[in-house]
Amino acid sequence: MFAALSPQFRSLGNAQNIMDAAAVLAVVTCGITFVLMMGSIDLSSAGVMGASALTVSLLVANNRNDNDLGLLGIAVAVLLGCAFGCLSGLALVLLKVPSFMATLGVSAIGLGVATLMFAGVQPNITDAMLKGWAIDRFLGLSYLTWIAVACILVGWLIQRYTRLGRYAYAIGGAEEVLALSGVKVKPYKVAVFALAGAFYGLGGVMVTSQLGAGLVQAGNGYDFSAITAAVVGGTLLTGGRGGVLHSAVGVLLVMVLTNGLVQVGVSPYWQGGVEGLIVVAAVAAAVIPQRRRNQVVK
Amino acid sequence: MSVAEMPALEVRGLVKHYPGVKALDGVDLVVRQHEVLGLAGENGAGKSTLLKALVGLVTPDAGEIYVRGEAVKLRSVVEAANHGIGMVFQEQSLVPNLTAAENILLGSEGASVRRGLYRWDVMRRLAQEQLDKIGSKIDPLARTDSLSFADRQMVEIAKVLRIEQRSQHPPVIILDEPTSVLESKEIDTLFAQIRRLREFASVVFVSHRLDEVLDVCDRVTVLRSGQSVGEVAAAGAVPRELHRMMIGSTGSDDHYHENAASVVGSEQPRLSVRGLSGKSFRGIDLDVAAGEIVSIVGVHGSGREDVCRALFGAEPATAGEIRMDGRKIDLRSTRAACAAGIGYVPAERKIEGMVGPMSVADNMTLTKQKARCAGPFVAPAKQASLVDRWIERLSIRTPTRDTAIQRLSGGNQQKVVLARWLVGGDIKLLLLDHPTRGLDIGARSEVYRLMRELAASGVATVLLADSLEEAIGMADRILVMNDGRVVTEVACPAGGKPSPLDLVKEMV
């Protein structure tokens, strides 16, 4: 439809644009998919990404201090994300805080940590490698896009070939059954949140690469967009269905839609509202067949 | 006694208390090696508590469990499995979105998962080994929710047999109501399977259907009120005999207040149902006169619970009509039912019957809001005097009217739930779905008395009783349901009660 309305939309260059613009969202969605598969929800990505963005920008070569840790700095930022995820998971299983509240809290903590590190002066990165990720291209796509592709692949492997991935799926399907089979569920829940946190951490690093600076708001809006993309891709909010590949398709659909709206001249101010409509419609559409099926089974 | 002759599993004097109820009151049970033991008992006899104790889901207050002569403590499903005891649960306990192989190996993956990494080929092979043991042809990599009920049950049995890997001796397999979801052909397959299992395991088989129990078991132990009351060799026994043991001798005292039974007028029926059909029942006709208590009896799956809910509009009925005092009411609306003077006391009191943390007063006035309000506002004084009046009339034992209902005993909770329908003063028909479930004898008797009083005041009652005895004791008339239809109607006046066995004949 967009292709008919706008000749620009059809161009190869625009396809590249969509892919590049989708990179960060794809990585974040990859992480959140595992949490959604369990039937939990994760609203912490914005805060975690902010903290990771500031961390990485202060650890690689930058204008604020003399650090030049390069890849090690990136690894630290990813691990920080992992730790935040761990925190969400522990609050869930030990303190029995519902996941939406636990992760919302962790998001606020992440933003707080990021604001402290920001300390009023924006850290601009001078690290050539990290800046290059957003600019240099390989086979027509930016390095960030290839990183996203790699993340999806890794995510798919985790989902298909590890106990962690399969149990995340099973927890969403029937958690009680796991307990009756003698499986200790709690460690897996924490691990899933930690895994998701690592993906958000990487997402924060990628945003920093795009902006050339570490910003507190690096993850602004990604929490909601990632859930939208995962749901549009067919992952159920009640858990037990969907997966990383589904989510990848969902990310592309959402990006094509927003990109298409811009190309046909819809004001960008509309985009937030449109995204909201999409997620509500997608959830409603996913629930209808589910209801019908339940009636047949029971 | 040599180890080879030791019972595979023995239970001595098992006791388990729940608040207000003694679920197990010194149960004894012996499961010999390579035998199929049947376990029979009415609802509330303690079967499910006993089974849970055997797989470590319930910790008994007293008594011992012996596995092959050795005293054991079973604190979790895993510990029970380590001693070779496994159970196929009544509600199927498989993860629907995993493959059959994963479900079979869940919790004991062995070589199929190394350092957290799946090896699907190994998993497929290990699962196939389990399926081969029971001669099943299911594809191990099929998604579980794509399998039929019968196939899923085979997967469950294959899964339970994994405990052989943990214990050093033949396992004890418990099957809790395995036939309730199967069709008759599938039941035959299951029974062939159970006979096969006997070759290398002991089996405990639990079912409501006594003919099935006698068909497949070697021996049957009967439970009643948390005690083992008898043991029968299955060969040559008849269901009638078992049933007599299950219900025991009826008490000679007037437990059901039969002398208070009201005389039913023969005017126009208060409730009149014609051709009511839903997904689990068809063509139900039912009349209940003012002051009459009609009980619907039937085995698990007969559809009687759904009929009861459909009368209240809580379960969609697809056809038919319901009239109250001649006026037709909307089939799909609980609101319409309330407005027509119908009250429903659900079986799951704690989930559907009451709002646990809310006060006695608020629970009591939940439905009939008008009774406690002045205009759009709650009138505290009005509510207080109304609630106090009913607390006194039903002798509800509660510290104050503001006590949270969940702190009351089961019997008093149930009285509050009943009072909810009475405070409006416009109740015409009460639907009582297992109103005495989980109550002790004293509380039961009080509920019976209350039912009699209501009937005497002209309220019509439809009762789904907890036991056949209760149905016979309370009802003026009994409808027997089987497989979604009313198969017969039995008059049940005081002084001319039918025997439980007459009813059982029609139920199975």
Automatic annotation (TrEMBL), chain A:
GO-annotated molecular function: transmembrane transporter activity
Highest taxon listed in the record's lineage: Bacteria
CDD domains linked: TM_PBP1_transp_AraH_like
Designated name of the protein: Sugar ABC transporter permease
Entries under PANTHER family matching the protein: ABC TRANSPORTER PERMEASE PROTEIN YPHD-RELATED-RELATED (PTHR32196), RIBOSE IMPORT PERMEASE PROTEIN RBSC (PTHR32196:SF72)
Species the sequence originates in: Dactylosporangium siamense
Protein keywords: Cell membrane, Membrane, Transmembrane, Transmembrane helix
One GO cellular component term: plasma membrane
Regions that span the bilayer: 21-39, 69-94, 100-118, 138-158, 190-213, 219-237, 244-262, 268-288
InterPro entries, per the entry: ABC_transp_permease
Compartment annotation: Cell membrane
Membrane topology label: Multi-pass membrane protein
